[in-house]
From TrEMBL:
GO terms for cellular component: endoplasmic reticulum membrane. Keywords: Endoplasmic reticulum, Heme, Iron, Membrane, Metal-binding, Microsome, Monooxygenase, Oxidoreductase, Transmembrane, Transmembrane helix. This is Cytochrome P450. PROSITE patterns: CYTOCHROME_P450. The keyword Membrane applies. Its cofactor is heme.
C-alpha cells in the first residue's frame, strides 16, 4: 500500500471516529429523555447567525409547558438550561450549596488575571469574596460619590465642547471613556483623563480587553482542560503586564508615602497585611500575591467600565425613542436637585425613583450579560421531575430570555419603566429580574454600578436632550461577536442638544 493510500485511510478513520464521537455526544440529552435544542456541528447550539448568542435562547421559552429545564450543547459539551423561574431561584439561592461554582476558566500560571473573584470557585472564591465585600458598603459608596460626581462634571464639559461643532454624537466610546475615568479614580486612585485624551493609557488597554475575540472565550468555556494544557490565555500578555505593573507601582507608592484613599486599592493593601495565623481554611488565609491583587483590580476595572457604559448607552437610546419618558426623568431630576439647592448628593440620587425604574427597565431589556453560569458540585435531582443535573455539569441561566418572557413582562419589547414601580415588582416572582444575578454569587459591585450609572445619567439628562437621527438604528441591532451586549459596530449615534 502506497503512502497516499495509507494517508487516505488514516484520514477516513479519524473522520469516522470524530463523527461517531460527536454523534454520541449529541445524544446525551436524548438518551436521558430530556427536551433539548437540536445541535448543529461544529458549534452545538451556538448560533452562527446574525443575532447575538443570548437572543437565540429566547426560543427556549416554547418548552416551558413541557419542562422546567431543557438540554443544550456548547460545542460538544452538554449544558443544562433552566427555563422556569422557580428552578432558577432554587439554583441561585435555595440550593446554592449544590451550585456554588461557576466552572469558569482559571489559569493562574499562563493567564494570571483570570484568577479574579468572578472566576474563582470553592473556598478560594469564598475567602476572596469575604475580603472584598467591604469595598462596596453604603459607607464606601458615600465616600466615593464626590469623585464620581467630579468625573461626571468633566464629562459634561467634554460633551458641551463637542456639541458646539456637531449635534450628532457617537456615544459608546464617549460613555466608555467616562466610566474608564471613574474606575481609574475609584479603583486605582489614578487621575485618568480619557475624556480629554481618548488615547490615554487606561482607555487604550480598556479597548484592548473588549476586543478579545468571543470565540476565544467560547473555546475556554467549552474546553477548559484542553485550554490549560495548551497554555491558552484569554487576556493577552501585554494587557496583563500593564495591570500587574500598575498595581505594583500604586501599592509601592502608597506604602512608601503612607497614603490612604479608602478605595479599592486600599482594601487590597489591608488584605495583604493579614497574618497567616488566621482561622480560615488552609490555603485561603494566605496573603494575596501581586498577581492575585492585580486580578481583582482588573475585574473591578473591566466589570465597572463596560457594563455601566453599556447600560447608559441603551438607556439614552430608549429615552431618545420615548421622549415622554425622557422628559419625565428630567422633571424628576430637576425637582429633586432643586430640593438640594442644585447639588447632586448621595441622598438626592436615592430620591430619584423614576430614574431608578428607567435604569432597571433598561437592564431588563438590555442586560449586559445575557447568561448566568453555575456548575453542579454534586448530582442534583430537579424537583418534580426525573431529570438529574449531574455533578460537574454547567448550568446556563438564560436571563435575557427570562427578561423577555411575555408571561412575566407583557409586550417585552416595549420600554416601560412603570414595570418597576413598587406595586408591579410586588406582583412578580422575586427571581424574575436577574441583571445583577441572585444569591451569594450575585454582583458584589452592584451598588457601585448603580451609583455611577445614576450620576452619569443625571448629569446628562439635566443638561441635554437626546433624540434619534438618521444614523440611529431603529430597531436596535446588536454586535454578534461580543460578550457584552452592545450596538452593532459598538457605535450609537444620537442627536444631542442643550436643554
Amino acid at each position: 500500500m502506497d503512502c497516499l493510500s495509507i494517508a487516505c485511510s488514516v484520514v477516513i478513520v479519524l473522520i469516522t471516529f470524530a463523527y461517531l464521537f460527536i454523534k454520541r455526544r449529541y445524544s446525551f440529552w436524548k438518551n436521558r429523555g430530556v427536551e433539548y435544542l437540536e445541535p448543529s456541528f461544529p458549534l452545538g447550539n451556538i448560533p452562527f447567525k446574525k443575532i447575538h448568542f443570548t437572543q437565540y435562547f429566547v426560543d427556549v421559552l416554547k418548552f416551558k409547558q413541557k419542562s422546567s429545564l431543557i438540554g443544550a450543547y456548547l460545542v460538544t459539551k452538554p449544558v443544562a438550561v433552566p427555563i422556569k423561574v422557580d428552578l432558577i431561584q432554587n439554583i441561585l439561592v435555595k440550593d446554592f450549596a449544590s451550585f456554588h461554582d461557576r466552572g469558569a476558566y482559571v489559569n493562574e500560571v499562563d493567564d494570571p488575571l483570570s484568577a479574579h473573584m468572578f472566576n474563582l470557585d470553592g473556598e478560594k472564591w469564598k475567602a476572596v469574596r469575604t475580603k472584598l465585600s467591604p469595598t462596596f458598603t453604603s459607607g464606601k459608596m458615600k465616600f466615593m460619590f464626590p469623585t464620581v460626581v467630579e468625573v461626571a462634571e468633566r464629562f459634561n464639559h467634554t460633551l458641551a465642547d463637542l456639541i458646539k461643532t456637531e449635534s450628532e454624537i457617537e456615544l459608546v466610546d464617549l460613555l466608555e471613556r467616562f466610566t474608564t475615568d471613574v474606575i481609574g479614580s475609584c479603583a486605582f486612585g489614578i487621575e485618568c483623563n480619557s475624556l480629554q485624551d481618548p488615547k490615554f493609557i487606561f482607555r487604550h488597554y480598556g479597548k484592548k480587553v473588549t476586543e478579545v475575540p468571543l470565540l476565544r472565550h467560547l473555546f475556554v468555556l467549552a474546553f477548559p482542560s484542553l485550554a490549560r494544557k495548551v497554555h491558552m490565555r484569554v487576556i493577552d500578555k501585554n494587557i496583563a503586564d500593564f495591570f500587574i505593573e500598575t498595581v505594583r507601582k500604586t501599592i509601592d507608592y502608597r506604602e512608601k508615602n503612607h497614603i490612604r484613599r479608602n478605595d479599592f486599592m486600599d482594601l487590597l493593601i489591608e488584605i495583604n497585611k493579614d497574618s497567616d495565623n488566621s482561622s480560615e481554611p488552609v490555603g485561603t488565609s494566605k496573603k494575596l500575591s501581586l498577581e492575585d491583587m492585580a486580578a481583582q483590580a482588573f475585574l473591578f476595572f473591566v466589570a465597572g467600565f463596560e457594563t455601566s457604559s453599556a447600560t447608559m448607552v441603551f438607556c439614552l437610546y430608549e429615552l431618545a425613542l420615548n421622549l415622554d419618558i425622557q422628559e419625565k426623568c428630567r422633571q424628576e431630576i430637576n425637582g429633586v436637585l432643586e430640593k438640594y439647592n442644585g447639588n447632586l448628593t448621595y441622598e438626592a440620587i436615592k430620591e430619584m425613583t423614576y430614574l431608578d425604574q428607567t435604569i432597571k427597565e433598561t437592564l431588563r431589556k438590555y442586560p449586559p450579560i445575557g447568561f448566568l453560569i453555575r456548575k453542579a458540585v454534586r448530582d442534583y435531582p430537579v424537583p418534580n421531575t426525573k431529570i438529574v443535573i449531574e455533578k460537574g455539569m454547567e448550568v446556563f441561566i438564560p436571563l435575557y430570555a427570562i427578561h423577555h418572557d411575555p408571561e412575566i413582562y407583557p409586550n417585552p419589547e416595549n420600554f416601560e419603566p412603570d414595570r418597576f414601580s413598587p406595586e408591579e415588582v410586588k406582583n412578580r416572582h422575586s427571581g424574575s429580574f436577574l441583571a445583577f444575578g441572585d444569591g451569594p454569587r450575585n454582583c458584589v459591585g452592584q451598588r457601585f454600578a448603580k451609583m455611577q450609572t445614576r450620576i452619569g445619567l443625571t448629569t446628562l439628562l439635566k443638561n441635554y436632550r437626546f433624540k434619534t437621527c438618521g444614523k440611529t438604528p431603529v430597531p436596535m441591532v446588536f454586535e454578534v461577536f461580543r460578550g457584552i451586549l452592545s450596538p452593532k459596530g459598538s457605535k450609537l449615534v444620537l442627536e444631542i442638544e442643550r436643554v
